[in-house]
Amino acid sequence: MDINALFSLAGRHALITGGNSGIGLAMAQALGHAGASVTLVARRASELESAAARLGKDNIRADWIACDLASPEAVASCGALCLERHQHTDVLINAAGINLRKSFMDNSPADWNLHLALHLGAPFFMTQALAPTMKKNNWGRIINLASLQSTRAFANGTPYGAAKGGVVQLTRAIAQEWSAHGITCNAIGPGFFKTALTAPVFDNPELAAKNAAQTCIGRNGELADLAGITVFFASDASAYITGQTLMIDGGFTAK
Question: Are 18 and 96 in contact, with CB atoms under 8 Å apart?
Answer without folding.
Answer: yes
